[in-house]
Structure formats: C-alpha cells, structure tokens
Amino acid sequence: MDTLIDRRELAFQLYDMLNVEQLCTRSAFQDHDRETFESVLDVAEKIARDYLVDHNRLVDEQEPAFDGEKVTMRPEVKEAFDAIAGAGFIAGREPYENGGMQLPESVMSACMAVMSAANVSTVAYPFLTTAAARVIKHFASDDLKQQFLPPMFKGRFTGTMALTEPQAGSSLADIVTKATPSDDGSYRIKGHKVYISAGDHELSDNIIHLVLAKIEGAPAGVKGISLFLVPKFLLNENGEPAERNDVALAGLFHKLGYRGTTSTALNFGEQGNCVGYLIGEPHQGLKYMFQMMNEARIMVGMGATSLGYRGYQHSLEYARTREQGRSPSNSHPDSKPLSIIEHADVKRMLLAQKAYTEGGLALGLYGCSLVDDINSASSTKREEAQLLLDLLTPILKAWPSEFCLKANDLAIQVLGGAGYTREYPVEQCWRDNRLNPIHEGTNGIQSIDLLGRKVWMQSGQGLKLLHREMTLTTENSPEVFNDWVTQLQSTLAAITEIMMTVGGQLRENPDKALANSHAFLTLMGHTVVAWQWLKQAGIAQAKLAGDCSEQEQAFYRGKVQAAHYFFAWELPTVQRDIAVLKAADQTVFDMQSNWF
User: Fold this and answer.
1) In this structure, how many other beta carbons lie within 10 angstroms of the beta carbon of residue 241?
2) Which residues are catalytic?
3) Its pTM surpasses 0.90
4) CA 62 → CA 367, 402, 428, 435, 549, distances in Å?
5) What value, to the nearest 5°, has the Cα angle with vertex 373 and ends 370 and 377?
6) What is the CATH number of domain 157-283?
7) How far apart are CA 127 and CA 38, in angstroms?
8) Ranges assigned E (strand) in 57-170
9) pLDDT digits over 570-587, tens only?
10) DSSP characters for 409-459?
C-alpha cells in the first residue's frame, strides 16, 4: 500500500493536538461528530486511492499539451476532478444552503492533505476553484454570485487567479493590465498574464478568471488595482456558457514538476472585446485578492507537507526492506547485511524527515484551526485567532515549503542511486515540491512581509498572543522535558530582544533592516515548530503513562524521539540567525552587484 498521510497520524493531529471534536459544540458544526469527520476522511482517502494516486506518475510523464486550439491531458484527470466535485469537496467548507457540507477548515484541510499526497497536480483544479469561489462569495455583487457560485461549487465551472505579468512578477504594483468601462456596466480587459495555474483545460464547462487590472485613471501602484471576474465563456440568458470571451491561451509553460496542472500564458482582449465584471469597489482589488492569496498560502504549506510526508513514507519503507552493509562493530563479510534503517546516518535522515513533515503537519493544521475559530468562535477568540493567523501566514507558507522540500531531498538520499532514478517515486515528490517555495509569493517575500509588517500589526499584539500560547505549553509540559522548555524560552527571549533592535533599524533604514529578513523567518519558523513538537511530545508522554498497546507505544515513543531530534539538531541552528539579527550583520546588504 502506498502510504499517503497515515490515518493514525491524522487522528493524533486532529483529535489529540487540536481536539476538533470540541468544534461540534459550536452551532456551525453541531451536526457533526468524530464519526462524520472520519467518514469524510474515508471518502477523501478512497478518492485518493481510486482516482488520484495511479495517474500521478502518468501526468508527470504525459503533461498537458496545447495544439493551438485546445488543451488535452490524460483522461484520468477529468475522472478524478469529477469524483472530487461529486463528493462535495469543492464546497465542503460551505454552509448547507450553498450546497456544502459545513465542515471545519481543519477537517477539510486534512482531506486535502490526503488527496494532495496522492496527486498534487490534479487536486489543484478543484481547490483553486474553491479559493476563487470564496472570493466571489465574499466580495462580488449578488448578481455575480447568483450566476457563478452555484456552478463553481458543483464543479461545472472552475476558477483561477490571474495576477502575474511578465514585466511585474510578484511586484503587483507594476501590473499594466487595463480595464475600460463599458456602457453596459461591464469592463473591457486588455493585458497579458503568465504562470496562471489551471488557466486553460477541458475539465469544466467554463473557467472563471479573477483578474487584477487597473481602471483607466486609477491611482498609481497597489492603490489603483481592481479585481475583475472574467469568464472564458460569457453566459446566456439561461446562465449557460455561450459565446467565447476574448481570452486566449498564448501557450503552456513546461515545468520541472507539478506538471499535471497547466501553467498558462493568457492574453486578455487581443480582439478588444474581453468582457470583465468588477468585483466589489474600484481600486480595492488587491485587498480582495489577498483573501484568496492568504488561503492559497496555507494550502501551499499543506501541499508541501503532504509531498514531504509521502516522500518520507517511501524512503521509510525502502529503508526497512533494503539490506546493505553491516554495523561498524560487526564488519565480518559472512554476517548478514543489515536493513539500512539500522545504520545511524539513515536514522538521522529519517528522523529529520519525520521532524519536518510531522512538524509541518502540526503547524499547518494549527493554522487551519485558527480559521475555524475565526469562523465560529466567540468574538474575543475570533479576534485573537485572526491576529495569530495574520502573523503566522508567512510561516505557514514558507517553513513547510523549505523544510518539507529538504525532507524530499533526504528521501532521495536514503534511496541512494535508486532515489536518483525516475523508476522510484521520491524524485517526483522533490520536483513537484520545488514549486512551493516560489509560488504564492516567494519565501523571500514572505520573510519581508513577516519582519516588515506582520510582527508589528496592532503594536505587536499577534506576537504577544503567540508568546502567550507558547507559554501555556511550556508551563504545562512534563518535567522530563524541562531542558526543551528552557531552550524554547531562551529562543523566545532572543526574539523579544531582536524585535527591539530591528524596530529601531526599520525606522532608520528599512532597506538595511530587512536585508536579513530570511534569518528572521527561519528563526520564527523553527521556534513555532519547536513549540508544536513540545506539544506533541507532551501528549505522547501522557499517553505512554497510560495503558496502550505495543503498536501505540511505538507511535508515541516515535513522537517523543522526533521532538528530541528537533530540539537537539534543529532548534540550535537558529543561533546563527539570532547572531546575525542581533549584530545587524550587513554582509548581504553591503555586497555590490558588480562584485559577483
């Protein structure tokens, strides 16, 4: 069996770490219980095994093609898309009146993790549709909602976000796509967008693009960006796709990995008649789109974790069954070779993968639990959850996409020469995962966002709340983990000191202050994940003190040992980042471009 996300691991994260069952006491989720959550996870796993995992390699080897007229791809993608839509996962988070299952974000994201581990390329189509539909739901007019939301939630229409332009990249202030008002209240869109995931395909009856553009005469920079709904096909009076809109596929990009998801270059308005509909108010587009972008950033982190976890599981299975070499104390050639999992350096690599991927899973699902609180908790808890989520979003995206990618690199190493071949699956996990540090804002952009903006919001209230939550964990940890508690408390104290130093630097010279932002992102990410590992170890230690089977004991001891690894091998590495930040090191800032 190809282990995707181990259900025992998901149960630990959902019920022991997050206690998602207590969500069922809230009115939004009162129809649910653990049984319904497990049933939904059963469906997700069945779809993953029956519709997704088998064509994961096929869409990598036979990526989508464009013949100048239309995009073609493996038929299994359409079958899987229809299965996901038919099971209700596109609208899974939505209330019943919208055709949804009214599920918590944490449970939906666990389902997404299982399916993403099976085939991240194919699941991108339905989950991008969900994110686009939610923007329309929150900000569009009632008329646009009525026309486009029902078919999107059912999977008849799919969605994209069209932000990036060739000359602007991630610098959205520099986009040049234009929107001209028309007499009928719509707009005519003209411009060129690139790297638009799922931008063209034949999976649905229509594709709904959310396009950033500037209305003529708009203010310069980000203050002049508006958001438009641009369908591939215009709707007739019955709400059905009819006339083709002036949106043209210029071509497909050929990617290192993640190949089953089309990455497109789109031309809007080549014939001067691309119809777009304004979403919300003029010049507020970036604010609206940030909802989709922030949701997508959490999805990126979860997707990176899923790919890292799957590679870890493959390398773990290989290490158990591959016999090679002998222990240093017994090198006699007549002795039986060891399974390589018995070699210390292989254990090191497997422990690192376990620490990264299970730490990333805990981090990502914690972020999703904050979304659940924002959507369903009391007003005070809702406000606190929003502050914490705003602070953590750059970390939720960047930390797993860096360190779960490292997990894939280690999985290749565990397999040795086999890992470097396409005959084994771990190299594809790495290639698919390599996109995640790049898209939805590169990790460098996330670091600037974190240090330059997020930690200072509401006078640093989010950081104070995070410190409070971590302190609750350290104060209630078993005495056996006191050294780890001291280590985490010391790191938190260093962050507080660094904040005082960086605050002054930002006022004097923000360019210099932000030159070391990646060090701060790594410091914060490792600290938050160390906190998650301390929580996991505390729960595991309590379980071990009770009556549990031999299999359960192994599971919980593995948790404690992985936490031990993180505190012994990983958290100490942030001392470099602390030193760089405290000293306001200018090595990077002072480097001149002509010295390279």
Assistant:
1) 19
2) 440
3) yes
4) 35, 27, 13, 19, 46
5) 165
6) 2.40.110.20
7) 20
8) 65-66, 71-72, 157-162
9) 999 999 999 999 999 999
10) HHHHHHHGGGGGSTTSTHHHHHHHHTTTTTSSS-HHHHHHHHHHTGGGGGG
Which pLDDT value is given to residue 234? 98
Closest by Cα among 543, 546, 569 to 557: 543
Query: Would you state the structure tokens that stand for residue 389, as one six-digit string?
Result: 């989520």
Sort strands 206-215 and 157-162 into parallel, antiparallel or unpaired: parallel
Vertex 5 angle, CA 4 and 6, to 5°:
110
Diameter over CA atoms, the chain: 88
Residue 244 · residue 230 · CB < 8 Å: no
Pick the CATH number of 7-148 from 1.10.760.10, 3.40.50.920, 1.10.540.10, 2.40.40.20: 1.10.540.10
Dist. CA 581–CA 522, nearest whole Å: 11
323: how many CB neighbours lie within 10 A of its CB?
12
CA angle 157, 47, 71 (to 5 degrees): 40
**Closest C-alpha among 498, 501, 500 to residue 521:** 498
Q: Could you tell me where the beta strands, DSSP code E, fall in 407-541?
A: none
Encoded tokens for 122 = 């194919």
Per-residue pLDDT tens digits for 492-526: 999 999 999 899 899 999 999 999 999 999 999 99
Distance between CA 405 and CA 357 in Å, rounded? Answer: 9
* pLDDT at 188 > cutoff 60: yes
Average pLDDT, the chain: 96
pLDDT in tens, 237-287: 999 999 999 999 999 999 999 999 999 999 999 999 999 999 999 999 999
The pLDDT score that the predictor gives to residue 294 is 86
Q: Where are the domains of the chain?
A: 7-148, 157-283, 451-596
Mention every residue, 6+ apart, whose C-beta is less than 8 A from residue 212.
Answer: 162, 163, 172, 175, 177, 225, 226, 227, 228, 285, 286, 289
Instruction: Residue 543: count other Cβ atoms within 10 Å of its Cβ.
Output: 17
Note whether 198 and 257 are within 8 A (CB). Answer: no
Q: Which two tokens stand for residue 277?
A: 């509909």
pLDDT digits (tens, 9 = 90+) for 21-67: 999 999 999 999 999 999 999 999 999 999 999 999 999 999 999 99
CA separation for the pair 381, 60 (Å, rounded): 44
Structure tokens at 73: 């791809």
- pLDDT above 80: residue 2: no
Q: How far apart are CA 278 and CA 285, in angstroms?
A: 9
Percent pLDDT > 70 in the chain is: 100
**Is residue 292 pLDDT above 90, yes or no?**
no
pLDDT at residue 421 is higher than 60 = yes
Residue 1 pLDDT grade (very low, low, confident, very high; cuts 50, 70, 90):
low
Write out the two tokens for 318. 């290989």
